[in-house]
Amino acid sequence: MLHNPLAVYQKVENATMSGREVEAAVLTKAALKLKKCQNNWDADDREIELDAALKFNQRIWTIFQGELIKEENPLPINFKRDILSLSAFVDKRIFETMAYPEPDKLTVMININNNLAAGLRSAPAATK
Fold it and tell me: Which of 30, 31, 44, 110 would staple 57 via disulfide (CB 3.0–4.6 Å)?
């Protein structure tokens, strides 16, 4: 039986990634989904794709929120507050975009996801 080489690679990659790498990967995936919607705004399936991209992004940020409020989370309190504040902004932008879709509204979410992913990837190895 032949396997899809890309799927096999992705399965192995996911199994060997650190927590930070996984977080960076899902943020990048969300940014790419949003960017695809932005670039194909006039597509016939835009509503479906936009809804899926926004919900995917919302799930990621909801998971971050849940992890940040756990007492056992070792991150500094100020950092947790900053990320929670950022997540509240992202939530607000998601709902605004769902209610009143405009391609320009996606830019800030794309940038936030990409910048946070880049920061996670560049974190020193000792903190991973």
Answer: 30
